[in-house]
Amino acid sequence: MTVVIGFEGSANKIGIGIIRDGEVLSNPRRTYITPPGQGFMPSDTARHHRAVILTVLKEALEQAGLKPADIDCVAYTKGPGMGAPLVMVALVARTVSQLWGKPLLGVNHCIGHIEMGRLITKANNPTVLYVSGGNTQVIAYSERRYRIFGETIDIAVGNCLDRFARVIKISNDPSPGYNIEQMAKKGSQYVELPYTVKGMDVSFSGILSYIEEAAHKMLSSGQCTAEDLCFSLQETVFSMLVEITERAMAHCGSQEVLIVGGVGCNLRLQEMMGVMCKERGAKLFATDERFCIDNGAMIAQAGWEMFRSGQVTELEDSWITQRYRTDEVEVTWRD
User: Does the annotation place 109 within a ligand binding site?
Assistant: First the structure.
């Protein structure tokens, strides 16, 4: 049996998970939450991670009922992500790997999401919609690579939602996206917003600029409520995502969709994607916030797959990179 521990800390979540042959033994995490109207700075986020990482590591081992000797491999997020938090987590993973005398593995964050989604949902060969605060991609597997069929050409969908939340001072606890989703349920009036799909790609910066400018005017004049704006923003950006996912499915002849990433636990996005899948006679796969939101177990799972196929990262190659594309990784564990 192969046991892998995974360290994740590419953004405002710090998580450490342990996987044994497809079974999640433990997966504790902490979130760095800032006051309403503020985002999180890389240096502050790294400081938060540094303060809690050893507590989380202890929790992960205790919950799994394992000792360092039981671990076969140490996996960590190599990228993409925010520089300072990535460096912090890689440093701890490197140290642990040397202290315990275990091989090290640098994992692509996006592939961690995909492999975790495949493990939990048992999807066979899905078209993947990966949506989070830092990434928006439509992906399908072909010839030992996860190929990107469409993506955002500017900001990620989660970043668009988060920044809108800052404009109207929505709380960051537990996350701005979750709070927008709850407010959107109370919205009844649809406000028309720019809808920007360019072939297989999407753009969110124009929608954000438009709604940032319009929000205060519309709210102060009573044209609509904050709930209406949340509802309208969700409906517009999710429609764009469903459109490019459907196009990728048609191109690949796929009958499965897997939604991964932090925005993937939004039930309205799942509902809209479900309608499209039903019309095509396809199946939708999604997970809940335990595995959608950044966590250590997803890095452990991707690390498990990589380690089993013979990959390891030498110490001198164990750097991090803020830009690390999904299609740069050779997928040696799938045929």
Answer: yes
